[in-house]
């Protein structure tokens, strides 16, 4: 039986429990003089019976499916003879996949008898796990139906009980945010720790050489395996700076014009149009940057006498990224500017200031903290952006401040290290997680600071 | 007071007046300039948008048409090496390219020599042979018969017909050589070549040959991925929003949840890809490249968006509704589920659609979980290897063939069309159900 079929059977039992619980409550109420003598409406008795059936069975099923593989794999490893069990991790996973193939009947013939034996163990374990899964789940579900039936009594406080269960479910859903954060931290942290066991953390943070190819043979050329991340940090900062130099003035001035000068009509047309820029997928910007902006910039700069400009330049990626975050800056600044109370403006006008003087000398300073928060958020967005830089900035880890050269960024390296075939334990793959850790904490810090600034600013005028 | 001093005073006053006027003028000028900066930056932003869209549209439109070549093909048994039409393995392995070669050399009898023949057969897409095979296997009676069929032309022929390859360039700089040009002109003059609407683009999966590459596989992958995302993120997001708005006590835990949601909304998407790789694939052992993993990752990514918008729409329901229901004896849960939730639902739906649009356009996290594989088959379920539309755009943009530029732009146009429809739907829902209390 497939897990999905099992699920359907359990759901059918749940429906049965609901109907039975509901019916029984009505039946029990009849001799007492109608359902007005029940503590709750009949519905809630049915629902409680359904909860008794569904909850334990589904929790068990979920745990079983989640842990099945790990447990079986460990048991198989334990059953292997020592010479096979005490291999390196990579070898072991190779052995395991051989065992799996034999068990599936894919690889016949010249199998090692030890492997064949392990395959037998595997098949046996899988069969008993399958049987246990189905048997226990169904038993729990049926037991749930019975418990629901027995517990249904007129005095049972079905509604509060059910509401408590529901509230628990709601709480669980909102805790997913915490689980996600924890999941991110743990997954990048563990792999990073393993990476830093192979490569010292000081070399990673202060090294100026990045070439993550590791030699397969000792005599291979150009595969030193250097993991100094400084060129990546510099490249990321260079591109993010260019992006902010484009986005901040344009976004800020657009926001000022739209909130202070534009009529309602104009604003209602222009604002959504500008926000279209934020809705375009980043891969589209990447394509534009790689195919249109990059060659255009190369032609322009070669036209005015620069030589050796590559089509993949930090400038192209930065400019396009800047365009992408214009609406981000403008809508955040718009909110902040609108939050500045009108009394400040009126006071300034009363003293005879022109509109632009009011904006520059009163509104802007008042809104400055909020705008700074917005810019920090935009910066974190620029640092974490992936597709544009993957497609337009290149892979060469140049340590340079020249925006016309190809540079690489943290996100590009994460993407290229993890795309394609990978060996899970090589420092090359683990380096991606270390970079991810850096990225996560940098953007986290920026966000926390930015959100705190914006919040403080809001409170100031509320 | 002497006349002289009065004159001096008047002059001074006039001077002051002038100075004030001059200053006022410069202040007004500055005002105008400031305003012009504002208009200029908006114009700049909109110009970028216009350039972006026109570039993509002008490059992509041509991919919606493609070139077909009309050939008279004869299923000659000797050319096909078939001696028994009932033997299926013979039909499957027969030399259908030979049939095409024969049809072409009958059309152009002057062509001879290995290289020339190779160039000649290269004018028709390699998919032509498969098409003949499918026809013959469906209907073995065709063996020995002749029929007239339209075949997909090679991508270079299409580029030439389309004017993207400039026929006035010297031969060495042109991907189509002089002889091929002659053949094409000959086909044009006998009406054996024409451009038609490109249905292949909408019905095929990915391919290494630009002329047979289509987006259906990627579109289906996106569809399955989004189904998973929607099925998980909408209920979970709404439940979380209900808890936080209606039930959460003001305590440490609630505060931590709120901080987490706000921060997750700003975590770079690629980090979610790392999470998916480490947790879903390496820990739980879910299959790589599968829409179900993509959907899970995108769920975690869109949840903050959905929760934030759902909370806003719950907040917009006036307290009087809650108080009235409470006054009639409803429990807190009944108030929420029977009254607040239905009223907030349209707003939640709007937020969810916008979240889905974000998920549809997302690329980076899906690269991490292996949805970048080259997949020809059209995925048929949640665990089949698949790719999604934006990743298809990324893959094609990396391809060296010139014809893939148009394909990429066309795929982007399809993607943008989906996004536009989703966003318009959200706007429509908001307009239709918006209530002012």
Q: Structural class of chain B, please?
A: mainly alpha
Which whole number gives the mean pLDDT of chain B?
Answer: 89
Return the string of H and E elements of chain B: HEHHHHHEHHEHHHHHHHHHH
Provide the number of structural domains of chain A: 2
The shape of chain A, in one word, is flat
> What is the CATH architecture term of the largest domain in chain B?
Orthogonal Bundle
Q: What is the class of the largest domain in chain B in the CATH system?
A: Mainly Alpha
How are strands sequenced across the largest beta sheet of chain B? 2-1-3
> Whole-number radius of gyration of chain B?
33 Å
What is the assigned CATH homologous superfamily of the largest domain in chain B? MetI-like
Low-confidence stretches of chain B: none
SSE run of chain A = HHHHHHHEEHHHHHHHHH
Poorly predicted tracts of residues of chain A: none
Function (chain A): Part of the binding-protein-dependent transport system for phosphate; probably responsible for the translocation of the substrate across the membrane.
Pfam family, one (chain A): BPD_transp_1
Organism (chain A): Saccharospirillum salsuginis
Membrane topology (chain A): Multi-pass membrane protein
Which keywords apply here?
heterodimer; A: 462 residues; mainly alpha; MetI-like fold; two-stranded antiparallel sheet; 16 helices; B: 437 residues; three-stranded antiparallel β-sheet; 3 strands; flat; phosphate transport (chain A)
Topology:
The complex is a heterodimer of chains A (462) and B (437).
Chain A: H1 3-29, H2 42-79, H3 82-85, H4 89-103, H5 113-151, H6 158-198, H7 201-206, E1 210-214, E2 224-227, H8 230-261, H9 264-279, H10 282-303, H11 314-339, H12 342-350, H13 355-384, H14 387-392, H15 410-418, H16 427-461
Antiparallel strand pairs in A: 1-2
Chain B: H1 3-60, E1 65-74, H2 77-80, H3 88-93, H4 96-107, H5 114-121, H6 127-138, E2 146-152, H7 155-161, H8 178-189, E3 193-197, H9 200-203, H10 216-247, H11 252-264, H12 269-283, H13 291-315, H14 319-327, H15 332-361, H16 364-368, H17 389-397, H18 403-433
Antiparallel strand pairs in B: 1-2, 1-3
Helix pairs in contact in B: 1-18, 4-6, 10-13, 10-15, 10-17, 12-13, 13-15, 14-15, 15-18, 17-18
Domain ABC transmembrane type-1 (chain B): 219-426
Protein name (chain B): Phosphate transport system permease protein PstA
Membrane topology (chain B): Multi-pass membrane protein
């Amino acid at each position: 039986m497939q897990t999905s079929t099992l699920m359907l059977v359990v759901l059918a039992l749940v429906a049965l429990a609901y109907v039975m619980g509901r019916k029984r409550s009505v039946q029990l109420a009849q001799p007492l003089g109608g359902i007005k003598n029940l503590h709750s409406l009949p519905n809630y008795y049915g629902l409680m019976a359904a909860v008794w059936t569904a909850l334990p069975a589904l929790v068990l099923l979920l745990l079983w499916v989640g842990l099945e593989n790990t447990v079986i794999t460990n048991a198989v490893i334990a059953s292997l003879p020592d010479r096979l069990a005490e291999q390196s991790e990579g070898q072991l996973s190779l052995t395991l996949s051989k065992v799996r193939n034999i068990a599936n009947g894919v690889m016949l013939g010249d199998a090692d008898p030890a492997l064949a034996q392990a395959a037998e163990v595997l098949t046996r374990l899988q069969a008993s796990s399958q049987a246990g899964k189905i048997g226990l789940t169904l038993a729990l579900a049926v037991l749930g139906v019975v418990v629901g039936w027995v517990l249904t009594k007129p005095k049972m406080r079905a509604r509060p009980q059910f509401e408590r269960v529901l509230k628990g479910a709601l709480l669980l859903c909102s805790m997913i945010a915490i689980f996600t954060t924890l999941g991110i931290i743990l997954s990048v942290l563990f792999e990073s720790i393993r990476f830093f066991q192979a490569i010292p953390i000081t070399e990673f943070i202060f090294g100026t050489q990045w070439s993550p190819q590791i030699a397969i043979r000792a005599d291979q050329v150009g595969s030193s395996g250097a993991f100094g991340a400084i060129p990546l940090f510099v490249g990321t900062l260079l591109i993010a700076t260019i992006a902010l130099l484009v986005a901040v003035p344009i976004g800020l001035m657009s926001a000022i014009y739209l909130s202070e000068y534009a009529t309602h009509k104009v604003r209602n047309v222009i604002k959504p149009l500008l926000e279209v820029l934020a809705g375009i997928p980043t891969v589209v910007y990447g394509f534009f940057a790689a195919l249109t902006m990059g060659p255009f910039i190369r032609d322009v700069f070669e036209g005015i006498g620069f030589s050796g400009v590559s089509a993949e330049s930090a400038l192209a990626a930065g400019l396009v990224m800047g365009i992408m975050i214009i609406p981000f800056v403008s809508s955040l600044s718009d909110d902040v500017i609108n939050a500045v109370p009108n009394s400040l403006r009126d006071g300034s006008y009363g003293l005879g200031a022109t509109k632009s003087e009011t904006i520059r000398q009163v509104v802007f300073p008042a809104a400055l903290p909020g705008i700074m928060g917005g810019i920090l958020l935009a910066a974190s967005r620029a640092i974490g952006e992936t597709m544009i830089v993957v497609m337009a900035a290149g892979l060469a880890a140049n340590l340079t401040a020249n925006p016309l050269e190809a540079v690489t960024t943290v996100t590009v390296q994460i993407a290229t290290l993890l795309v394609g075939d990978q060996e899970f334990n090589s420092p090359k793959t683990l380096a991606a997680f270390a970079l991810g850790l850096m990225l996560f904490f940098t953007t986290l810090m920026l966000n926390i600071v930015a959100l705190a600034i914006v919040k403080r600013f809001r409170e100031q005028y509320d | 007071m002497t006349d002289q001093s009065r004159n001096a005073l008047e002059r001074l006053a006039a001077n002051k007046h002038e100075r004030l006027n001059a200053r006022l003028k410069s202040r007004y000028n500055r005002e105008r300039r400031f305003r012009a900066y504002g208009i200029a930056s908006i114009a700049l932003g909109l110009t970028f948008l216009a350039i972006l869209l026109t570039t993509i549209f002008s490059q992509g439109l041509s991919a919606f048409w493609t070139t077909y070549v009309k050939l008279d093909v004869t299923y000659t048994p000797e050319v096909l090496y078939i001696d028994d039409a009932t033997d299926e393995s013979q039909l499957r392995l027969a030399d259908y390219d030979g049939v095409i070669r024969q049809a072409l050399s009958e059309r152009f009898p002057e062509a001879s020599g290995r290289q020339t023949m190779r160039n000649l057969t290269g004018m028709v897409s390699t998919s032509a042979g498969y098409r003949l095979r499918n026809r013959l296997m469906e209907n073995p009676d065709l063996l020995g018969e002749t029929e007239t069929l339209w075949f997909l032309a090679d991508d270079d022929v299409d580029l030439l017909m389309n004017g993207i390859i400039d026929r006035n360039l010297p031969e060495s700089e042109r991907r189509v050589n002089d002889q091929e040009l002659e053949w094409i002109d000959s086909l044009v003059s006998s009406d054996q070549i024409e451009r038609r609407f490109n249905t292949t683009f909408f019905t095929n999966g990915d391919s290494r040959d630009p002329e047979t590459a289509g987006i259906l596989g990627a579109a289906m992958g996106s569809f399955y991925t989004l189904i998973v995302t929607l099925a998980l993120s909408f209920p979970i997001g709404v439940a979380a929003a209900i808890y936080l708005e209606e039930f959460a006590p003001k305590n440490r835990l609630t505060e931590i949840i709120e901080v987490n949601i706000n921060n997750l909304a700003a975590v770079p998407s690629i980090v979610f890809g790392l999470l998916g790789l480490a947790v879903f694939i390496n820990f739980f052992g879910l299959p790589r490249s599968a829409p179900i993993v993509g959907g899970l990752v995108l769920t975690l990514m869109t949840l903050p968006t959905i929760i934030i918008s759902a909370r806003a729409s719950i907040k917009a329901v006036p307290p009087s509704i809650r108080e009235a229901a409470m006054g009639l004896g409803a429990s807190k849960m009944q108030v929420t589920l029977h009254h607040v939730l239905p009223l907030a639902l349209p707003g939640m739906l709007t937020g969810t659609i916008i979240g889905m649009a974000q998920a549809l356009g997302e690329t980076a996290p899906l690269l991490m979980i292996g949805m970048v594989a080259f997949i020809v088959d059209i995925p048929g379920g949640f665990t089949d290897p698949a790719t999604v539309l934006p990743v298809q755009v990324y893959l094609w943009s990396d391809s060296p063939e010139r014809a893939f530029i148009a394909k990429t732009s066309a795929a982007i146009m399809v993607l943008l069309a989906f996004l536009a429809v989703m966003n318009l739907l959200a706007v429509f829902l908001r307009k239709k159900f918006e209530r002012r209390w």
